[in-house]
Amino acid sequence: MISERFEHSRRYWDLIAETYDQIFPETLIGQTQRCAVWRKLEEVFRPGERILEMNCGTGIDAIYLAERGVRVLACDLSPRLIELARQRSFTAHTSGLTEFRVLPTEEISELAVDGPFDGAFSNFSGLNCVEDLVSVARSLGQLLRPKASALICMAGCIAPWEIAWHLCHGQPKKAMRRILPHTEDPGINVRFPGVRAIVRAFAPAFQLRRWNGIGIAVPPSCMEPLARRFPGLLKLLACADTYLAPCPLTRVFADCVLLQFERLSI
Predict the structure, then answer these.
(1) CB-based contact 181:233 (threshold 8 Å)
(2) What is the DSSP pairing of strand 144-155 with strand 117-122?
């Protein structure tokens, strides 16, 4: 049951659920960035493991892992998104390895009876919408086995491509939205913490093992019109990202950051 605290957010995500995949997952840029995350998911999570996904949306990532033999319990606060995820899983014949539940990330402590999990992940900007990341990290720590991995992909705090694009289109507020956060919808608050702040939020239960940038040469989704006009160039930029992603000098300017944490035995 969604509490009154999350009712506004639930209505918002239910409203856009029908077009959710068109906003990012089905775009060329969205698919390119997701493939970069998928390579890491496949590297970290193994067949037979049971993984928790937070902010699952329409279930794209859960199904990708399920097709590779990974069991996934996936949660989202939007009943409509969960319904669409279940339909997608049924069509993909992965229902036996996926379970979808309506549950806000802030309330994952309710999953204690389902744990412990072998790992967890949240893809793209779901955790940017969480008000208290420290509380979520604390709850997550109680759900994972010692030495389990948690892959956290969040929108970065500085995205030069995005700044340049919006400034060229006379949209200074959008250009600075990560540096000076604002929202047109007062009920949907998006935060853009830096990597150091994220690491502090996950301490002491988790230790950062490594992190990469997602979308450095590859631009953010606001530049989809150019990506569709020059798909060959997008492929070249994606190849460049494989080298730039772990580089300390470039990963700080990524559209998203992908952090791999390990659950400590404390």
Answers:
(1) no
(2) parallel
Q: Which helix (H) or strand (E) holds 106?
A: none
- Give pTM, 2 decimals: 0.93
- To the nearest 10°, report the CA torsion of 227, 82, 48, 257: 40
- pLDDT, one tens digit for every residue, the chain (266 residues): 456 667 888 888 899 999 989 889 999 999 999 999 999 999 999 999 999 999 999 999 999 999 999 999 999 999 999 999 999 999 999 999 999 999 999 999 999 999 999 999 999 989 999 989 999 999 999 999 999 999 999 999 999 999 999 999 999 989 999 988 655 555 578 899 999 999 999 999 999 999 999 999 999 999 999 999 999 999 999 999 999 999 999 999 999 999 999 999 86
Pair 231, 28: CB distance under 8 Å: yes
| Tokens (6 digits) for 22 | 């068109």
Q: What is the CATH number of the domain that holds 223?
A: 3.40.50.150
DSSP annotation of 56: -
CA–CA separation, 136 and 128 (whole Å) = 12
Number of domains present in the structure of the chain: 1
For residue 27, what are the domain limits? 4-263
